[in-house]
């Protein structure tokens, strides 16, 4: 066991940060530091190694090392479920280390699959519990020296997941098999009775309980029609919904030169969508600036929070999985430099903008569908003298190998991360009302790591920079549009 632990440690050290770029490797690393370490620790506590254990604990405190916990292991398993759903990944392929036909040297054992399935089981997520317990059951039967205890746990939980997903006959057959191999198992009799009662309610007679076994069912949602937004979001994350030819024909790129500073070094702008306007500024943050921001932020990253409408406080939320930190304007010269650059990019006043938010999305990291602006009836908006969030600037500081796109649901648009670039859009229409077409999400990272920096700009100070239109339907044709000629036909230079 000790040799196995040492071997794993050497592999992890050799791979370095790359061990966190693949979701299966990341799960195994967290499991290694949570489950495997506990076993080693317990063994060492049984002999004279207690002093050594104490020294390790003291060194952790001294070096401010945070080891992952059981909660982190559950989070890693939940991330795998999210990735499975969004990217339509096959359970067997995942357990064998394959992602989109690309293999790795990391396979999951029956025990690993069981731990993943157990996380779903405990959360009463029987859809994923069934997928992973079935995979664990398939694997444990092929192992040369399977753990009898693991086999019992897998069979019991698999039978109940089958039952909850409507496969009652299959659940009954499996729990009866468990009773045969483990006659003294405490819960088999109770579950057999539960399953038989369920079959009686379905109209089956006792002699029909074990006959005509129907194909296995495993529905993710009870009512698929209620999850239309979820399906659109996931399809966008897979980049399966292309923009129509008519819309594409309207899009173009241009050089933004509407300020004296930009005459010699214009911004490269790509319009990715009209109605509402969304653009990418290419090459607006350098690798050197990215490295400095990451270095300043890294040690301060904490679990991302959202503002609760009920408490008006920032709290962790299951629909936003990332780590973040806020950098104040005077905290580093790079932040001040980016602020000046954002003003030139957007033509908006940053006096009342929020601090620069840095976020890191690791294994399965994502931000579910949301608006950046506050609703009119939100008590949070009443407490903001600077007004609502008029616009968002999102810098991409890395480029994950797979995943991590920004998906706009109503307009069915996917924007893939482009390192060194920045995505920009207006959250409010010209009248100041929230633009519901900006309902968007950060897709989960499948392979790689995603770093972003974002700036939320508020209404105050924009009265003359982005005035109300004459009509409610008035909107920009390009960034900083005040009624001048469009850059497609004329140079975007201030007259």
Q: Care to describe what's here?
A:
Its main location: endoplasmic reticulum. Residues 352-459 form the Fe2OG dioxygenase domain. It is an enzyme of class 1 (oxidoreductase). One of its GO terms (molecular function) is iron ion binding. It is a single chain. The protein is α+β, with helices and mostly antiparallel strands and 495 residues long. It has 2 domains: 2-208, Serine Threonine Protein Phosphatase 5, Tetratricopeptide repeat (Alpha Horseshoe); 235-493, q2cbj1_9rhob like domain (Jelly Rolls, Sandwich). Helix content is 39%, strand content 16%. It is built from 15 helices and 19 strands. The chain has helices spanning 2-15, 23-45, 50-62, 70-87, 91-95, 110-122, 126-140, 148-164, 168-181, 188-201, 228-237, 245-250, 287-298, 333-346, 379-382, and strands at 253-257, 267-273, 278-282, 302-303, 305-307, 314-316, 320-321, 323-327, 356-361, 366-370, 389-396, 402-403, 406-408, 413-415, 422-426, 440-442, 445-447, 450-458, 492-493. The strands form 4 sheets. A 10-stranded mixed sheet has the order 4-8-9-18-11-15-3-2-1-19, covered by helices on one side. It has a 5-stranded antiparallel sheet with strand order 7-10-16-13-14, covered by helices on one side. Strands 5-6 form a two-stranded antiparallel sheet. Helix 2 packs antiparallel against helix 4, helix 6 (110-122) crosses helix 8 and helix 7 runs antiparallel to helix 8 (148-164). The protein is elongated and about 85 Å long. It starts with a helix and ends with a strand.
